[in-house]
Amino acid sequence: MSMEWSVDLEEEYDKIYRYCYRKLRSREAAEDVTQETFLRYFRTAPDCRGRTLPWLYTVARNLCMDELRRPGTEALPEESGMAGPADGMGEADRVLERLTMERALGALSEQEREMIFLRYVNETPLAVLGSLYGISRFAVHRRLQKALWRMRREMDGEGVNFPGS
Amino acid sequence: MELVIKNLTRQYPDRGSWKAGKQEKKKKAAVDDISLRLQEGVYGLLGENGAGKTTLMRMICGILQPTEGSVTFDGMDVATEEYRAQLGYLPQDFGYYPNFTGYSFLLYMAALKGLSRAQARRRTKELLRLVSLEDVAKKKIKAYSGGMKQRLGIAQALLNDPKLLILDEPTAGLDPKERVRFRELIAGLGKDAVVLLSTHIVGDIEHIADKVLMMKKGRLIYEGKWDAQKGDLEAFYLRQFENAREESEEAWKQ
Amino acid sequence: MKRREKEALREIFAAPAPCGKRDFFRKMNLPAISQREFVLRQVGYVGKSVWEVSAAVLILALLEARRQSQDMLWILSALTPFVALTIATESGRSEACGMAELEMTARFSLKSLVLARMEIVGMMNLLLLCSFFIFTGQRSAAMPGRDGVYLLTPYLLTADCGLWIVRRVRGREGNYICFGAAVLVSAIELLLRQNIPFLFGAEAFWGWFVALVVFMAGFGLQMKLFVGHYTVSAYEI
């Protein structure tokens, strides 16, 4: 098997890891699942030719589900109130914006949150998202726009919106 | 992680030996029956010019075929692609295609090392930062100073995150400040790779090598840890050569 | 998506850094890019001179084609040695530029690199020669491909000599000597045509054909030797 020209496996590792962390809420578990995903990729994936990302995400998703279904794993809260460490330099504004956004995100469905995460934090291409969810790219785009619109409306409701662009 | 060198020998090409005839019992060898086992860490290969350091290194890199003996790394033979996948090499001197910039040079080497385009771009940026060449990355190599070119050379050797790093006289021609920076860089690399660096500058060895290998006339005359207790490395070095000379005189008499 | 929104999202969805990544990838033996991808990427690195010479030859050939002279076939035939020049110089490029030592130790070693270059330049040469073939048109319906023989023979002869030369004389000098060889072959052909026109008539065709086969075999041999040159050891002490 060979490497696709556009794929950087080390970058994808980070992204898959973040994806798993969202679901499993544990660094070790997330890393274990990530490594297992890549192990399987090296072992069994044929010439992926443009389908590496969907393959990785699909397998990671399934492994996460297996992990969560295991007896002894408690259901973890969907949103951990604890987000990443606040940037020490952040002005009070930014902290406020972030907290408001977190709350706004809480008002969305899990799938909407996940889509926003995948698209804007992991920078996953629309085609890959479509493949992962079994819908067309356009459907992904529509749902994303809708989710963003709802999020922004929630934030507006609290009087917070992001200046300019 | 282990580099295993067994009875490695490289004879000088037999030119004009028909003249010497059968009197020439002891053929001269550039590298004479060297066996080594190297694990993680930095190994300093000391020896004067002509001792066979570069020949040895070229054989370890698969550039030169040994007359006898073998080289394997974690069981992989030197002539295989998997061996080369783990290898990073900085030769004593290297050229570059005209009009290459530091950036394009690294991208080119990355392609040769089998990195995907996305990977190549990321590694190139990371390594340019590591060796502090970001500012001149887009300038032509033609315009680089000797020290910059050396740094580029090391960056190229690290593209594939090698487990086996062979550096031929990496600090030659560097000014003292650059030499210190290089030493720090190399010492760091020795933590999870087998690093073999050759030099005739004893000071390099003192500061970064965990173990010292000394060569003279193609033979390995000393292999061991360098200990501050052993005193001045330079004096030690000279003493070893004396011992080796006495030994070889003994052998010759027999 | 506004920049600050994105930044906020990144903070919200941040995860503690993974710690096993490097060790994991070092343990795995990552696959390399495919052979095909490797060759494709080399296309961009083909020497400038190859493009320049090819363009120059193509322009000359086009000019000649427009003229539609009687001698067109022979002029084009005398141009082909310069096409062959490119494959010889490109094959020796690594050593000429001092990159060979480094390239030998890479995963895709110098051998595959040289082969890739030969493939690419060979393709370019083939396209050029095909265009020559098209320019000359098919004059003799009885003997299809006859013109091809006349075009290929000087090409292969020069390629043989060029590869042989580049293996022995490295660097710029080797390239100059190759150029000399191309000029020589071209000049000899033109001179012979002036003085011994018999050789260029229909009766002498079979001589050309035999020469072609010989040169083709020579080409195969030179290629093999050339590539083998890089697998044994190019670095005698």
Give the biggest sheet of chain C.
none
Q: Outline the biggest β-sheet of chain B.
A: 6 strands, mixed
Number of helices of chain B: 9
Mean pLDDT of chain C: 86
Give the rounded overall mean pLDDT of chain B: 85
Oligomeric composition of the shown chains: heterotrimer
Give helix % range of chain B.
25-40%
* C-alpha Rg of chain B (nearest Å): 19 Å
Please give the alpha-carbon distance between the first and last residues of chain B.
Answer: 40 Å
Portion in strands of chain C: under 5%
The strand count of chain C comes to 0
Order of helices and strands of chain C: HHHHHHHHHHH
Provide a descriptive summary of the structure in words.
The complex is a heterotrimer of chains A (165), B (254) and C (237). Chain A contains seven helices and no strands. Chain A has helices at residues 9-24, 27-44, 52-69, 92-106, 110-121, 126-133, 137-157. In chain A, helix 1 (9-24) packs across helix 2 (27-44), helix 4 (92-106) crosses helix 7 (137-157) and helix 5 (110-121) crosses helix 7 (137-157). Chain B contains nine helices and ten strands. Chain C is mainly α and 237 residues long. Chain C is built from eleven helices and no strands. Chains in contact: A-B, A-C, B-C.
